[in-house]
Amino acid sequence: MLIKRKRGWELRESEATPESVFRDRRRVVQAMGMGALIAGAAPGAAALAAAPADPSAGLYPVKRNEGYTLDRPITDEGLATTYNNFYEFGSQKTIAEDAQELPIRPWSVVIDGMVDKPMTLAIDDLLKRVTLEERLYRHRCVEAWSMAVPWSGFPLKALVDLAQPLGSAKYLRMETFQNPKVAHGQKQFWYPWPYIEGMTMAEATNELAFLVTGMYGKPVPRQDGAPLRLALPWKYGFKSIKSIVRFSFTDQRPVGFWEKLQGNEYGFWANVNPEVPHPRWSQASERVLGAEGRRPTLLYNGYGEYVAALYQGLEGERLFM
Ligand code: MTE
Fold first, then answer.
1. How far is CA 183 from CA 4, 180, 291, 299, in A?
2. Which among 151, 199, 213, 292 is least buried, having the fewest CB atoms inside 10 angstroms?
3. From CA 233, how far away is CA 208, in angstroms rounded?
4. In tens digits, what is the pLDDT along the chain, a chain of 321 residues?
5. Residues near 5 by Cβ (< 8 Å), separated by ≥ 6?
6. pTM for the complete prediction?
7. For the chain, what is the radius of gyration of the CA atoms?
8. Where are the domains of the chain?
């Protein structure tokens, strides 16, 4: 599909909202005594508070797994929860308020495809079948900004074990909800809804692949992908699909939302690599939300010791785009 309109994340760094604008807004809001929420186009405290509470709140905070450490401070919660990419609610970063329309209960997750027994699980039943932990992960968007987040959740491998895929399954395909009545971005017919992402079984069972149910010691907010999203910290952020409703095991390589839209820019593997530029901007450095200046981008976003071996023998693939 030929897209003439520039999408939000295709803005050059110089065109994107500068951090200083956010910080200035924040100072004003803080001075008004409204805490870390960001003013202006960002969400109003009343709208965020009005959304029905998440019934899983009592599960948090969960114990931190100290095995995953950061080389930088944790991003301010107010920033990480108000600077979002969630195209279902629009192509701007300030979708947090609109995302409060998303009903997160009841919420079911379908597990199907090449599995022994397909099943549908209510999110709260799934939460009872796994052990939650907190992990500090870096998160690197393909737009060259990054943050560091305390996610709560469980290894994706635990869901794979629950699903018992057949030996013939080669890939895991995931799908986001489709509900244009509340997610107005889904009325934009030029996008290939629903949002799809996928990975190999070896990636899905790697210890880093993490299903997120919480953030900052609380349930993950709607704008960040409630009630269930993925975190694949060694890949560009668009692989970390939000608000998942379906996991399908398959022998066909899934074509993701962005790959379908613009395959020459966004591929299946999308591993972070400072030396492979996006066709329209460099990936050599990144803007760390809430920090001054830029940091050099790290190969596999600094997680090579966990994942580099997954790609041996695949050098012919477009591993970094
Ligand atoms: N998942 C869905 N369903 N829709 C989206 O638009 N955006 C992706 C990813 N997952 C997206 C999504 C992109 S581009 C990024 S960088 C991250 O979510 C952003 O996550 P955050 O808003 O929690 O920082």
1. 22, 5, 31, 35
2. 292
3. 7
4. 234 455 545 544 444 433 333 333 343 333 333 333 333 345 566 667 778 999 999 999 999 999 999 999 999 999 999 999 999 999 999 999 999 999 999 999 999 999 999 999 999 999 999 999 999 999 999 999 999 999 999 999 999 999 999 999 999 999 999 999 999 999 999 999 999 999 999 999 999 999 999 999 999 999 999 999 999 999 999 999 999 999 999 999 999 999 999 999 999 999 999 999 999 999 999 999 999 999 999 999 999 999 999 999 999 999 999
5. 190
6. 0.89
7. 19
8. 54-311
Whether domain 54-311 has CATH 3.30.1330.10: the reply is no
- Between the CA of residue 165 and those of 7, 212, 213, what are the distances in Å? 36, 21, 23
DSSP label at 210?
Answer: E
Token code pair at residue 119: 């099943």
Ligand 1 centre to CA of 256 (Å) is 13
304 Cα to the center of ligand 1, angstroms: 22
Produce one character per residue of 72-101: b if its CB has 16 or more CB atoms within 10 Å, e if not: eeebbbbbbbbbbbbbbbbbbbbbbbbbbe
Q: How far is the CA of 224 from the centre of ligand 1 (A)?
A: 7
Indicate if ligand 1 lies below 6 Å from the C-beta of 88: yes
